[in-house]
Amino acid sequence: MTGAAAPRRRGRPGYDLEALLAVAVEVFNTRGYDGTSMEDLSRALGIAKSAIYHHVSGKEELLRLSLDRALDGLFAVADDVRATPASAIEKLERLVRGSVEVLQRELPHVTLLLRVRGNTPTEQAALERRRQFDRYVAGLVRQAERDGDLHADLDPAITAHLLFGLVNSVVEWYRPGKRATDAALADHVCRLAFDGLRAR
Amino acid sequence: MTGAAAPRRRGRPGYDLEALLAVAVEVFNTRGYDGTSMEDLSRALGIAKSAIYHHVSGKEELLRLSLDRALDGLFAVADDVRATPASAIEKLERLVRGSVEVLQRELPHVTLLLRVRGNTPTEQAALERRRQFDRYVAGLVRQAERDGDLHADLDPAITAHLLFGLVNSVVEWYRPGKRATDAALADHVCRLAFDGLRAR
User: Fold this and answer.
1) Is B60 strand, coil or helix?
2) Do A99 and A35 reside in the same domain of the chain?
3) Is there a single domain that holds both residue B70 and residue B166?
4) Burial of A187 (0-12, 13-18, 19+ CB in 10 A)
């Protein structure tokens, strides 16, 4: 359909913004954002820096696009959960399930998000959105505890930390497509967190 | 008791090896091991590089001492568990509990261990010991599953990843002494992992 002479939709060959972002995020995750220069990106992409500047104003815009991809996914889940009429513990389970699915779908972006330490305004804004998400989680845990739906001897603040520590730990080992069980991962996390491993 | 003229036991003032290691590990965890030079350590310690070389051959020896501190702690727990007559699921619970306690006691060293990516022989040796520990965990999970002590619908490989992902995630937020619940943390992790959050 598209022969060699077909006009391209963009002025620069090789990369659209999406493909450029994918490569940039891999480089950020390997070298660290602070340790990545525009030269490094230019080399990894095999295009001139000027071709990168055709798409973005610099590496911080690539960082922002990546962190927003992860955060927008997580906030979309939180918005869905908020709009669902359900008990706090059911909402918590939906939030965990949806977060694991976002992590699987946007793995490089969530990995980058979890490594952010707040060295730039973009990173500080991302950390503030993470804290907002964490406050929503903590509120649901406290409500589930008040509802009597959590074991009474558990500290809600620790529970909230452990629950999303468990979810986030998946970035350390999960690689898409490596297992036939990709589809079952979110179920597995929920089963462990809410019902525990022990058969009874 | 020790006046200004009292002889010091060591030739160099200010730091013994233990105190030097504690500062070095903080710097490694903040700047990254690769990003830390002997100059950085000298500045953080407020002593000359020659005074550091009085104790160690260089920064890689400090890295090795730190990683061994974490790994020796974890292997001591595994050795205790191995010597205990108990079912696989009981051993697994003791291993989780003991690992959380090592993490609390040796927090900076375990944090460093979990960030190691294998860029030096010392890091590769540490990663090999981590894999050995992980294989022990995975073996216990498989045995517990064969014993019928785990929910039958859980994949043992994923369970092993999630269980120690949960344990290791504690380094992301736990700070000793910040909570009256320090003593209860290992219990809390075991309760979540083995019994689940949901009251029944």
Assistant:
1) helix
2) no
3) yes
4) middle
- Given CB atoms, is A186 within the 8 Å cutoff of chain B? no
**Contact predicate A35/A119, CB 8 Å:** no
Q: What is the pTM of this model?
A: 0.89
**A188 near A124, Cβ under 8 Å?**
no
Residue B21 sits in which domain range? Answer: 12-56
Collapsing DSSP to helix, strand or coil, A150 comes out as: strand
Q: How many domains does chain B have?
A: 2
Same domain for A71 and A51:
no
Cα–Cα nearest to A94, from A78, A110, A105: A78
For residue A141, what is the domain's CATH number? 1.10.357.10
Q: Are residues B23 and B119 in the same domain?
A: no
Is residue B67 within 8 A of residue B60, CB to CB? The reply is no
Q: How far is CA B165 from CA B94, B120, B160, B185, in A?
A: 16, 24, 8, 15
The verdict on B92 and B45 lying in the same domain is no
Q: What is the pLDDT of residues A139-172, one digit of tens each?
A: 999 999 999 999 888 889 999 999 999 999 999 9
Looking at the fold, whether B35 and B96 belong to one and the same domain comes out as no
Query: Are B141 and B82 members of one domain?
Result: yes
For residue A198, give the 3-state DSSP assignment: strand
| Tokens standing for residue B63 | 């890295």
Alpha-carbon gap, residue B32 to A115, rounded angstroms = 12
> Do A21 and A115 have their domain in common?
no
Q: What is the ipTM of this complex?
A: 0.87
Show residues of chain A in contact with B153, CB under 8 Å: 191
CB of A165 less than 8 A from some CB of B:
yes
How does DSSP classify residue A188?
H
Chain A residues within 8 A of B162 when measuring between CB atoms: 166, 169-170, 188-189, 192
Minimal Cβ distance to B197: which of A168, A185, A193: A193
